[in-house]
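Hey, resending since the last one bounced:
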Amino acid sequence: MSSNTALDTIAILYPGDMGHAVGRVLGDHGHEVITCLKGRTERSHKLAVAGNIRVVESLQALVREASLILSILPPAAAIKLARSVADAMKETSSFPVYVDCNAISPDTAAQVGEIITSAGAVFIDGGIIGLAPGKSSATRFYVSGADTRPMESLDGKGFVVRAIGDKVGQASGLKMCYAGLTKGTFTLHTAVLIAAERMGLSAELRDEFIESQSDTYSKMQVRVPKIPADSGRWIGEMEEIARTFASVGVPSGFHEGAAEILRVLSRTPYAEETRENLDMSRTLEEAIPVYAAHLDKDGKT
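The structure tokens again:
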């Protein structure tokens, strides 16, 4: 562990939608928050500014300064980032606590943990449930591992921290089950509506939903038109959920199918939107025909 045991300086890798909001509330509670944006997009730079996060020039500089690192990024990048940080730790002989907060399977969490502990640092498995701090008063960080006290010390600093066990993979497993319901349901809604559209039954299905499933249909209207902006990140999450289910003998096909639906949405023009410029006025009736039109198109279209 870094000699800066008071957790004065916390690193966020990276300041995306969730990461910059976490950095902002930690700063509001007296922590110095840093990041490294080498190779990142202009949007990441803007979000770092919005989160009052100081940018350092390299991962080597980051691990020298930080007491604790929060990895918050799309799940497909979790292992690559851990390897890069582990290399920086070895080069600098600096070993901040590393918390993987990504939507990854327990098996992937174990791989990340092995990379970090082999470098000489403490590893904590984490999973975030809820909206980003500022959008919700109840953002939860579930954590597990041999020593989760560094993360527990952040409880109440803009979010809730709940330790649920001493095994790596427990926090990630909880996140996988939770997202398997929430994001899996949003994606199932989308698949049902696309199928009806392709059969020319959208109006009839809408009328039946309004009559017999009005609460569910209201949720569809709010959420389904907005999914493309998140679809690129959610593909990997659905794949991680499928791996999690398969590892405990639960059929994985539903979430593999969900990943395919998200690939369709990621090919629509709406996928170019971000949380900052999302068209909040787009209706379900506008969105579904566009989704259906992209069903047969490959990734090159």
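Confidence is low (pLDDT under 50) at residues 1-5.

Sorry for the duplicate.
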